[in-house]
Amino acid sequence: MKNASKGFIPVMLMPFQNDGQIDYPALTGLTEMYLKSGAAGLFANCLSSEMFELSAEERLQSIHHIVDVVGGAVPVVATGTFAGPLNEQADFVKQVYEAGTEAVIVITGLLAAQEESDAVFNERFHRLLEWTSGVPLGFYECPEPYKRVLTAEQLGQFVATGRVTYHKDTCLDIEQIRAKLAATEGHKFGLYDAYMGHAVESLRAGAAGLSCIQGNFFPELIVWLCKNYDNASLQHEVAEVQEFFIKNMGVMHDVYPTVAKYSLKQRGVDISTFTRRKVGNFSGEVRAGVEALYGDYSTLSRSLELVA
Predict the structure, then answer these.
(1) Span 249-261, mean pLDDT?
(2) Helix 219-228 and helix 24-37: axis angle, to 10°?
(3) Cis peptide before 145 (omega within 30 of 0)
(4) How would residue 9 be classed by pLDDT, with cut points 50, 70 and 90?
(5) Other CB atoms within 10 A of residue 186 CB
(6) CA distance 201 to 242
(7) Which residues pair with 173 in a beta bridge?
(8) Backbone phi, then psi, for 226, in 5-degree steps?
(9) Are 77 and 138 in contact (CB under 8 A)?
(10) Which residues pair with 90 in a beta bridge?
(11) For the residues 15-40, what does the mean pLDDT come to?
């Protein structure tokens, strides 16, 4: 991405009305909240946006809406590949780019089946490059339909084409992160780590920033970490923030994205907890866990002098 400083790229939620339709006024408010928190960019039409539950028309309409609200303040990237023949995926990539995005994201698990080789994946990606001439691309190692993790060698080769500018990494392995960063060094490219378990290590290794679901609970806390991870005078606080996310990872992942929407409601954000995804039971126990999480966050944010 053009904004190469350490930054937080939210994986955007999709607000729905209680009848299941996209809530565009709430989407405006949510976009503005991310911007106010200090986000360096936005990742629209992603798994957190319930992209697989949206129609092609809804995907494009919501991307256009977000780009319009952002008004060029930060880059916007969005997913552009879904199941279907490669030529159809290429056509949709071009439509997503024409909507005003900085780069169009390729889902690694949709270019080749789980049993297919890296060689098959590589060949299809190079064809996609040919069929989307001039469109900057990025990768997302999305958990669905299955998680296909790129090797450092693959990523290095793709970035060397000059067409790949963004990568959302979900390998959960700091050594793989280091290898990918080494393989892509010197290029106009940003690796954004999704895993908060080693967030500080990843930033220190050279990651461009973080792109994690935890930012849909406390975006300003992720922004604070990106800004202060290497501040020698704040290392106690940095460790405290890292531990907060590690300790509460289970709470934030359980029945997601419902829990994230509920957490935002606690903070006064106008958003329904309705989701189209089947994510499990938002039980009283889960609800109590999210409420306790917000209490712990409020204490931490005061100690960091953040505005909760």
Answers:
(1) 96
(2) 30
(3) yes
(4) very high
(5) 7
(6) 10
(7) none
(8) -60, -35
(9) yes
(10) none
(11) 97
Record the tokens describing residue 40, joined without a space.
């360096």
Q: How many helices (H) and strands (E) does the chain have?
A: 12, 8
Tokens of 89: 């995926």
User: In degrees to the nearest 10, what's the CA dihedral of 260, 264, 265, 269?
Assistant: -140
The pLDDT assigned to 308 comes to: 46
DSSP at 265? H
CA dihedral 194, 195, 200, 206 (to 10 degrees): -50
Four-residue CA torsion sign, 201, 7, 98, 70: positive
Q: Which two tokens stand for residue 187?
A: 């290029």
Q: Which amino acid is at 206?
A: G
Tokens of 71: 């008004």
> What ranges in the chain are assigned the alpha helix state H?
24-37, 56-70, 86-98, 118-131, 152-159, 174-183, 199-205, 219-228, 235-247, 249-253, 258-266, 284-303
Q: Beta partners for 254?
A: none
Long-range contacts of 22-26 (CB under 8 A, 24+ apart): 22/54, 22/58, 22/61, 22/62, 23/271, 23/272, 24/65, 25/270, 26/270, 26/271, 26/272
